[in-house]
């Protein structure tokens, strides 16, 4: 028999975390999320996102042991932006068992129906601005930092429950040692009359988070499923990333002093914590920080690259994006990294995909957003 228990306080988080180990702990390509980070992000009312929205998490138990988990949310910003009557689900993990999957989604569907929602999309952990999508291609490769990893049966289970594909998002990965992008961009800028007016700078200082958030919200506003990030949430996410992110790896592109583009790059934390079992105590913190700050990771990830909407399709916008990526390639190589993944990108975002493919990089992973009626 499957028992579903709501997560109501921090003391419930450990079982929620262990459900992921039950489902995927045997897979060498799966990196358990840090229990510390899950405590920060999933404890009820603990984050700006949770306080602004109506969400609930559950853990499934069998014989007293956690075997699955799910989160459902009525995201008010999403509804205000899209007006589609959709709730979201995420933080999904479960063993390959009919009863477990049915019980988890029965709880999530009931929660969303009670709040007047008519559709459900996901997975989002916890929104489109966090970890999103279910891995449907790239199962033979380890997941990178803050990307979803899932065995193939997860997709089959969702489809069995009536979900259908809504949107694919993609990741491209390339060999940094083979890239000549910095040299090509440097030659193009040398021939371009407007080059002196385009400058790059590290996103540091008291106004940096607000500037990044402003460019991000503007640049992504027309994208499929986009939801604006509040400044409170942006500051929370920046604080969460601060221990692992080199100071000059988030970069703003200015055109004549106006911020028009942004790129964020991060070391692959999963490579630094793979052997820690999701725990930082008692010595995990030291090991993780040594690997991130001193030895470096062989792979890095670019989760954010883009320009303001008004500069899309212009030479200035294209040069800003190319300069940001070329700068990232140089910094990653100097840090000793060998591989760079850019993810996520919408599968129809040809401008960014073509830029990244020219790094060169090739399609390595696909994550899928699913939907169904309630």
UniProtKB/TrEMBL annotation:
Domain of life: Bacteria
InterPro entries listed in its UniProt record: Acyl_CoA_acyltransferase, BcerS-like
Name of the protein in question: N-acetyltransferase domain-containing protein
The species this protein was found in: Methylopila musalis
């Amino acid at each position: 028999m499957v028992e579903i228990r709501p997560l109501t306080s921090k003391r419930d988080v450990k079982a929620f975390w262990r459900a992921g180990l039950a489902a995927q702990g045997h897979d060498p390509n799966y990196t358990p999320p840090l229990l510390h980070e899950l405590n920060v992000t999933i404890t009820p009312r603990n984050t700006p996102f949770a306080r602004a929205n109506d969400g609930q998490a559950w853990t499934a138990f069998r014989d007293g042991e956690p075997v699955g988990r799910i989160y459902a949310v009525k995201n008010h910003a999403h509804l205000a932006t899209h007006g589609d009557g959709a709730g979201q689900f995420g933080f999904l993990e479960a063993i390959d068992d009919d009863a477990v999957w049915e019980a988890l989604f029965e709880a999530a569907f009931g929660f969303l129906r009670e709040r007047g929602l008519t559709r459900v999309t996901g997975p989002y952990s916890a929104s489109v601005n966090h970890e999103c999508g279910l891995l449907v291609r790239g199962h033979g490769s380890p997941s990178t930092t803050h990307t979803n990893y899932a065995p193939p049966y997860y997709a089959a289970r969702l489809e069995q429950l009536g979900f259908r594909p809504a949107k694919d998002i993609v990741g491209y990965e390339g060999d940094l040692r083979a890239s000549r992008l910095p040299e090509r961009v440097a030659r193009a800028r040398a021939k371009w009359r407007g080059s002196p007016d385009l400058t790059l700078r590290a996103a540091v200082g008291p106004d940096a988070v607000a500037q990044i958030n402003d460019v991000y919200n503007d640049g992504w506003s027309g994208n499929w499923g986009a939801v604006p990030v509040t400044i409170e949430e942006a500051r929370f996410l920046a604080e969460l990333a601060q221990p692992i992110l080199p100071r000059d790896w988030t970069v703003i592109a200015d055109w004549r002093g106006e911020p028009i583009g942004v790129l964020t790059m991060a070391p692959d934390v999963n490579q630094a914590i793979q052997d820690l079992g999701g725990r930082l105590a008692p010595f995990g913190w030291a090991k993780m920080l040594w690997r991130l700050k001193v030895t470096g990771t062989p792979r890095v990830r670019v989760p954010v690259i883009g320009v303001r909407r008004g500069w899309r399709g212009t030479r200035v916008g294209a040069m800003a994006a190319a300069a940001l990526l070329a700068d990232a390639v140089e910094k990653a190589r100097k840090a000793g990294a060998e591989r760079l993944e850019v993810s996520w990108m919408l599968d129809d975002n040809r401008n960014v995909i073509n830029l990244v493919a020219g790094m060169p990089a090739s399609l390595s992973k696909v994550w899928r957003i699913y939907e169904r009626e309630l």
